[in-house]
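Query form — protein Large ribosomal subunit protein bL17

QUESTION: What is the three-dimensional structure of this chain?
INPUT:
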Amino acid sequence: MRHNKGFNHLGRTSSHRKAMLSNMANSLILHKRISTTVAKAKSLRSFIEPIITKAKDDTTHNRRMAFRSLRSKTAVNELFREVIVKVGERPGGYTRILKTGNRLGDNAEMCIIELVDYNENMLAAKEEAPKKTRSRRGASKKKSSEKPAAKEETKAPEADTKEEAVKADEVSEEKAAEEPKAEDKSDDQPEEEKAE
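ANSWER: The structure tokens for Large ribosomal subunit protein bL17 are given below.
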């Protein structure tokens, strides 16, 4: 029974699990992204992120602590020389897990685990995205109150009852009917003058 066991044993003995996580961490540091199952990726994330945090302070002791976990000089050198330059300002969360679907053979959930600052596509998309502007409530109220006032000036006075509205419509129709007659008379006058 696994009472109060706080991590995934991944169906392996302790020595096998530590060796596997060490190898996966080496591959992640050297290649910047690897494809694996979701369960292994979550275990790898909790294994490698403390190592990256320690690598921010480049001391002999921290190098030895990283070597104790990684067991590879090339991976330790890459971590302290290349990786820390990019992730040095980040306060945590150095890895990203992207799910890619299920494996054909055993239907296991697969994913890609990568170092966050090395995904050039996502960094480019982040730079191109426009910054969102924040709207304030006071500004929107002022704008909404100003617009109806401008509309009221251009519109005819509004009626309070339906009867007044009908009368106002009739008056506006009469005015519209009178305007073309005035234009017709002005057109007729030059013709009459020509006839005289």
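ADDITIONAL NOTE: The chain has a mean pLDDT of 83.
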